[in-house]
Amino acid sequence: MAHTPILTFTEKGIYCAAGDFYIDPWRPVQRALITHGHADHARPGHASYLATHTALPVMRHRLGDISAEGIGFGETRMIGDAKVSFHPAGHVPGSAQIRIEVDGEIWVASGDYKTEGDGLSETFEPLRCHHFITESTFGLPVFRWQPQATVASEINAWWARCAANGKTAFLGAYALGKAQRLLSMLDPETGPILTHGAVEATNRILREQGLNLPQTVQATADVKPKDYPGAIVLAPPSALGSAWARKFGAQESAFASGWMQLRGVRRRRAGDRGFVISDHADWAGLIDTITQTGAENIYVTHGYTDIFTRYMNENGWNAQVVPTEFEGETLDQEPGA
Questions:
Q1: What is the DSSP string of 291-306?
Q2: Mean pLDDT along residues 150-167
Q3: Overall number of domains in the chain
């Protein structure tokens, strides 16, 4: 009799029959286990949600009145015949890889992950398993990240130049995760730090959970730009160049994204600068992680799936592409929004 895989890929999402639950499903289901709060992974309409204690407050903010339960990192829970635990993915605060064990066979669904510590997110934890479901958002050799401190120096130098030239610096970043990471990298001595409402709402939630973030001022309609000379404004990329942004007068804008590694993308953007920083693993991070899992079978989701899978198979792994509706990192908006 053929062995039924512990996780299968269905039209609703990644399904575990032994526990009758889905991981990050994109269609409404009875029981959803969620890796993190970005909109392409945490979707509305499920009857019940399970996520880490840190991820839940942002999910409730975004999804409204949901039936949800929290779980601690490393805490083991039996769901049906499946032993389930959540482990740090390092992507954004509260993000998790989900480990499922049934009769000694171990699967890990990575969700989105990055391997470099950022000082805010829980540090990525490599997990040994037989089967590993990995993203490949930046699964090309060209994507290799500089250390966070190097990028922080570049951003702060740019901001200081903007301030010296009488310009407001606008920095585009996702409201959840990237914005807070950048905020923690900024030098408050340079000037005031202003935020778009979407960024500040997330800041507030994470501060309430104990994350230490520099002081910010929400750029509401009452805020007069002349009262904040030399400011930097953190905003979702879609807000850059908007009527809201134009009220700040003379300004420069920049995008902070892994996609800034590609010269063609930088040229196509209207921004004045691009800073290469991502909350996803780069090429080396992906390869190192998969190697550390010791997994026999690799399932590759969103990103450069075909190229990355071909590399895996040519270098001794048994890899295949699996279709999902996860989007990974995009330039213009929150993933999946």
A1: HHHT-SEEEEEEESHH
A2: 97
A3: 2
- Measure the CA–CA gap between 321 and 300, rounded to whole angstroms: 5
Query: Any alpha helices (H) in the chain, and if so which ranges?
Result: 56-63, 148-164, 178-185, 197-208, 243-246, 263-268, 283-293, 305-314
Residue 1 lies in a domain: no
User: For residues 23 and 7, is the Cβ–Cβ distance under 8 A?
Assistant: yes
Q: What are the tokens at 89?
A: 């993915």
**Which among 227, 234, 281 has a CA at the least distance from the CA of 249?**
227
Helix, strand or coil, per DSSP, at residue 11: coil
Task: Tell me which of 249, 275, 301 is where a domain ends.
Answer: 275
The pLDDT of residue 216: 97
Task: Dig out the tokens for 104 from the structure.
Answer: 């000694």
In this prediction the pTM is 0.95
Residue range 62-114, pLDDT digits in tens: 999 999 999 999 999 999 999 999 999 999 999 999 999 999 999 999 999 99
Pair of tokens at residue 80: 């049906």
- Domain presence at residue 330: no
Give a yes or no: residue 25 inside a domain: yes
Facing residues of 68 across strands?
49
Number of neighbouring beta carbons within 10 Å of residue 124: 23
- pLDDT value at position 337? 38
Which domain covers residue 11, as residue numbers?
A: 7-142+279-321
Give the bridge partners for 76, in sequence order.
85
Give yes or no: residues 52 and 175 share one domain.
no
